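To close the chapter, one final illustration. This time we ask the reader to focus less on the individual chains and more on the assembly as a whole: which components sit near each other, and how the overall shape emerges from the parts.
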Amino acid sequence: MQASATHEAEAPWPAEGGPVVARPIELKPVYSFRFMARLGVSMLWHDKLKLAGTLVGVAFAVLMSNFQVSLFLGLLLRNTMYVDRVEADMWITPKSTQILEGNDGTIPKSVVPVARSVKGVAWSAPVLVGPAGLKLPAGGQKSVRLVGTELPAAKGGPFHIVAGETRDLAMPDAMFFEDSRRETFGGLNLGSVREVNGHRVHAVGFTSGLVPFGPVYAFSSFDTAREILRIPNDEVTYVLLGLAPGADLDEVVRRLQKTFPDQLVMSRSELRWRTINYILRESGIGQSIGGGVLMALFCGFAIVSLTMFSAVVDHVREFGTLKAIGATNFDLAKLLLAQAVVCAIAGAAIGEAVAAQIVNQIRGPELPMALPVWLISATFVAMILICVMASIMALLRVRAIEPAMVFR
Amino acid sequence: MIEVRDLNKVYGSGALAFQALKSVSMTASSGEVLLLVGPSGSGKTTLLSILGCVLTPTSGSVKLAGHELAGLPESRLPEMRLRYIGFVFQAHNLMPSLSTQGNVCLPLLLRGWSEKEARAEAAELLANVGLGQKLKALPRDLSGGQKQRVAIARALAGRPPILLCDEPTAALDAQTGQGVMETLTTLAHQGGHAVVVVTHDNRIFKFGDRMVRIEDGQILEPGEGDLHGH
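The assembled structure is written out below.
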């Protein structure tokens, strides 16, 4: 080595010779974690092909699981949309009601004024809901879920109006239909005339996106709905209630339930969850989509697990060297943990970005999808947990590495 | 600095048992270069591994800087390595993803030094092995000799009293190998390190202060391995 002569003058060892005193070992966990994390990330970055494989795996798992969950949430939203949009804080329904289909009988109309007199209730309004058949011009029939609402307050709808105005329902035999079903209903336009349960109605407006699993919603005035659904004058399907300012919701619900023991009184939230539970129980959609989500997450786990394990195998000499120069298994666990977290966050960010693009592109009334912030946050947390779990296999391999292998 | 008494190492058990070291006793002092030579399979790498606290002996006594290794729990060995030993490997074993400075920082950061302190120390060590201009270079951008000098700088980081070198010149040309040995000799003679070099390379025997010859797991008696006979 040519430089040796000059090294002597500037040697980093004591020039006078004599025993060397090792410098003190001062363990500082924060420095240690930061350093091992940086080393882990640099190792990841150095092997870009493997990093790309890991990120694709995580992103794919995120995309698949988010796609399924957002579809699932969209489907649930379709069925709770009416409850969510109605301004009522509380509902009175027939005792057997599970979901707002209007198939569970009726309740006496006298409930409406009595409920309004209960302490804590600001207002009450009846709605009529029931299935009806719309006769198509070319023959045949389609089902709608007709909602009759009291005007002018129109507490029971229509919502999401894309054409017409609510006050138009005050016209005789006027009706709002779902915009996405205009073609299905025989090229329906404003002013089009159809027969609903043998009753001639004309379209005065359209709503958008009120598309539950069953028949779509149609809206009319209270009286028109009563005629079409043939519900007696002294009966209503549901009663909507508003909470007085400052009143305690749970307490008012309890009070109402005590007043109307033959009916079911629920807060909006209770009705919403009742609807969701019913759909999950009856449709099996929870199991099928839940299974898909688990499969997607398992794929992510498997991919990350295998890529991290093979990365350790590929870099076994480097890990052996780290052990030989004094790194403990705990130090290397920090390194792998940092790699797992980085892969999880970067992969999830890519997956979420792609999922958001796809959801925005394809969602519509027929395929409602939702990608709420809580789902995105939960996905990040889930992927971090999955990647950390996936790194355990790599950690077991690292633990098994003998530092003596560096001499072989 | 290193004191080995009646050291035995047996791999495997029963009929498959293989005794790699048989009653080995030896010493290495501060300020000397000890060459450990012998044919392949003679047990010199096993001995070096035990001295380096990366392998535990089956029986016998090993003292490093006065600390007995026998009976020390395995969990304490990383600290012993970190505190007392610097390694120079045949294949340098640098981290390919780290710069030369990053590689030299490794033992210091493992010791709990701050990044700033470690970087300053690493820069100084690299400058002293003639690589002060290559702080940011990755190992793939260095020649074999330069990589070995980085490995020596890494081994010196933290100033361990013992340097264990496994065939440090095997992958180098004659001139570069001589340069590496000159550096190691200077470290021993001026720096006071105990330098143990496992080697097959008779071109570097002249750099040793003492030579221990090992065959079939046993140290040959003095005179059987004559340093100056080569």
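Chain B touches chain A through 63 residues (CB under 8 Å). DSSP finds six helices and ten strands in chain B. With these observations in hand, you are ready for the problems at the end of the chapter.
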